[in-house]
Amino acid sequence: MALIEQILRQAINPFDSVNFRPGNFWQETQDRALTVDSIHREAIDRLAECLAWVEGDRRTRTILLCGDSGAGKSHLLDRLKQHFNDRAFFAYIGPWPDREFLWRHILRNTVDSLLKVPDGQQESQLLIWLKSFSIFQQRSLLDRLLGDRKAFIRKLRETYPSDLYNANEFLGVLYDLLDPEFFWLASDWLRGENLDDEDLKTLRVRQPIETEDAAQKVLANFGRISADTQPIVLCFDNLDCIAGTPEGTVNLQSLLNCNSTIHNEKLKNFLIIISLITDTAYNYVDRLQPSDLARIDSQIVLKPIRLSQVEELYAARLHPLHQQANPQPSSPIFPLTRQLLDCHFPGQKTNPRNALELGRKVIFEYKTGKAIESEDILPAFKLVWLQALQKTEKRVTRIRQFSSVELMQMLYKVGKALQIDRLATKFLPNPRYTHYSLSYENGDGKIGIVWMEDPNLTSFFYLMKACEDARDRSLCCGLKLVRSERLGVQENKGYKLYQTLFDRHSHLSPSLESIGYLVTYQNLFHAAGVGELVVGNRTPDIDSLERLTRESKVLFHCPLLQDLGWVRGDSIVSLEDRLLDFLIDLIATQQLIGRQVLIEKAMERFTELDAIEIDRAIDRMSGEARIQILDPTADQHSQLICFEKELKF
Question: Could you read off the pLDDT of 347-392 as tens digits, one per residue?
Fold first, then answer.
C-alpha cells in the first residue's frame, strides 16, 4: 500500500466539479455513500411529516421548498425519494417549454415518472399504483375481471363512483396496462401522445389527450380514485429558469394556478413540492394572489450546514482514498483540516457547494504544489459535456420520449447558443401549430422550420396546411421539415401536401444521436439557469454556458445541426481523436494524475478500447511533448503525468 500523499497525487480530485450537477432523480443516480444523513435532516423530517398527513387524511398538501443556489435542493428531493419510495409514488417535473402546455407537461412528466421501477421492485410505479386498487386484493373476483374488459370497467366504476373524466375510456386504458402487449401503447395515451387512428382504435378510445383541459382532467382522475393507493409526490424542480415576465422576473403564476385548481377541485392524495431558489421565492411573494398563498400549506427553507457536517461531507469523499493508504491518515479529512474550515467560514456555517469547492481547491493545491490562479475552464466544460452526453445517450431510447413542443424548444435554445441570425419561435401563423415552428435568417432570407413527431396523420395534415398557408403568404423564402415519424402514403391528404412543400433536401429526419445533443444542452441550460452548473471553479450562467458551448464546439458533430447548416463539422470523428481529446482535457483539469488512473478513467469512457491501446496513446502524446511523464523509469503504477516540467515530487 502507498502513502496517502502518493495516492492523492495520482487520483482524480475527489471534489471534482464534474460530479456536482444535480438533476432529475429518476435519471441522475446519486452515490449514497457520499450522502451525509445529518445534512438537512430537519427538512427531511418535516417533509416526512407532511407525507404522513397526506397518508392519514388523503388531503392534498403543497410545500414550498426554498434554498440558496448550491444548498442541495435537487439532492434533497432525491434523498426524499430514496427514503420514502416504499410509502409514496414520486414524479419529477422540470421546467415546461411553454405555459400553454403546462397541464400536458405535468401529466406527461408524471406518467413518465410512474413508469420508472423503484429500487428493490420488479414492476413500475404505475403498475404498483394500479394493483393497489381494492379489487386486486380479491383474488377470485380479479381472475374473473381480468378476462372481461367491460366487467373490469364496470367494477371500477362501482368501486370508485366519483366523477371520473371520460371514465370508460380512462378505465379501459388502465385495463390495457395489465396486458404486456398493450402496456406501452396505453402508457403513451396516458402521457398525452397524439397517437394515430389505428392505435386509438386498438385502445378503444376516440381521441388522444391533446388539450390542456383534457390533460388536467386525466391528471384529476389519478386523484379521484386514490382512496386505496399510496400518495403521489409531485416534485417541481429547477423552475427558476422558466420563461419570465416582461419585467424580467420568473413567471410562476401558471404553476400556482394549477396548484390552486388541484386544491379547489379537492383532488386527493397528492403531495406537491415546489422547489425554488430563496431569492426567487421571496421576490415573487409580493406578486402572489392571496388565494394562491392560501394554497401553500407549508414552507421549508434549507439552512446552511454546520462545519461538523462539512467534515462529514469531506470524510465521505476522501474515505475511498484513505482506505488505500498505509499508514492510515491521522484525520478522516486529511489533507483538509478543521482550522482551514474555521478560517474560510468564520460564521461556522456554509452551503454544501461552497464546502465542496473549497475541498476541490485545497486538494488541487496539495496535488500540484501551487495555487489555482486563472483556471481555463474549457477543458472542464468539455468533460462535463461528455459525461452529460453519455448519460443522456443511455436513457434516450426513442425520439418520442419528448413532446414535439419540447423538441422545438430544445432546438431553439441550441440555436441561441450558436448565435443563429434572427432566430425566433412561433413562425407559423396558425395558433394551433405555431409552437411547432421557428424561423431564422440566412443569406437568402427568412427560413422556417417546423418539427412535429406526433404520429397522428390528421394532425400532420393540418400542420402541412399551416405550412402551405405560410408559403402562400410569402412568410419565408424556404421551409424545412424535421420529422422522423412516418409521413403517410400516397392516398393521404397530408402526404400529398407534403410532396408539394418539401423535397429530400428540405425534409430532415433526426437521429437519436441528434436528440442526445439537444437534450444534453437543455439539461445544462436548466442547471445553469438555476445556478447549479459547476464547471471547474466557476458557476456559469446561461450567457456563459452559451459562450462555452460555442468555444468548445461540442455541438459541431450533431448531425441535425449539420443538416440545417447551423454548424460545420466532421460527421465522423475518429475514436483515436476522441480519446486524445479526452486524455488532454482530463490532464488539464487535474494538472497531475497517475498514469494508471488516467488509463482506468479512459476505459470507463471508451469501453471499446483496452488498456494497451490507451497506454499507446499516452506514449504517443509523451513522444510529441504534449504531456510530461515525471518519472518515466518508475513502475507504470507509480508514474505521474502532467503538462508542466516544474511539477516534481
Answer: 999 999 999 999 999 999 998 888 777 678 999 999 999 999 999 9
Question: Residue 375, exposed/middle/buried by CB under 10 A (0-12, 13-18, 19+)?
Answer: middle
Name residues whose C-beta falls within 8 Å of residue 5's C-beta, 6 or more positions apart in sequence: none
Per the structure block, which three cell numbers stand in for 420? 443563429
State the CB neighbour count (10 A cutoff) for residue 359: 23
Given 3-state DSSP classes, what are the helix, strand and coil percentages for the chain, each rounded to the nearest 5? 50, 10, 35
Q: Rounded distance, CA 171 to CA 153, Å?
A: 6
Smallest Cα–Cα separation from 595: which of 561, 627, 549?
627
Nearest to 459 by CA among 195, 231, 238, 257: 195
pLDDT of residue 328: 92
> Residue type for 120, please?
G
**Within its chain, how far is the Cα of 256 from the centroid?**
22
Could you give the CA distance from residue 603 to residue 407 in angstroms, rounded to a whole number? 32
Compute the distance between CA of residue 518 and CA of residue 564 in angstroms, rounded to an integer. 14
- For residue 27, give the C-alpha cell: 435519471
> DSSP E strands: which ranges in 443-497?
445-451, 478-482
Task: Return the bridge partners of 235, or none.
Answer: 92, 273
User: Is the per-residue pLDDT at 246 higher than 50?
Assistant: no
Residue that has been written with the C-alpha cell 407549508 in this structure: 298
Nearest to 581 by CA among 393, 411, 439, 378: 378
Could you tell me if 459 and 472 are in contact, meaning their C-beta atoms sit under 8 angstroms apart? no
Q: What is the DSSP string of 305-345?
A: EEHHHHHHHHHHHHHHHHHTBSSPPSSTTTT--HHHHHHH-
Distance CA 349, CA 352 (A): 10
Tracing cell 500523499 back to the chain, one arrives at 5
**What are residue 232's DSSP bridge partners?**
89, 270
Closest to 496 measured CA to CA, from 542, 469, 460: 460
Mark residue 455 as left, alpha or beta (left: phi above 0; alpha: psi -120 to 50; beta: remaining): alpha
Asked if 17 and 360 count as a contact pair (C-beta separation under 8 A), the reply is: yes
Is the C-alpha dihedral spanning 145, 150, 156, 158 positive or negative?
negative
Instruction: Find the largest Cα–Cα distance for the chain.
Output: 81
Write out the three cell numbers for 312: 462529514
Residue labelled with grid coordinates 442547471: 527
Cell numbers for 348, please give them.
461556522
DSSP string, 69-84: TTS-HHHHHHHHHHHH
Residue 427 has pLDDT above 50, yes or no: yes
Q: Which amino acid is at 183?
A: F
Q: Map residue 274 onto helix, strand or coil.
A: strand
CA-wise closest residue to 45 among 32, 57, 63: 63
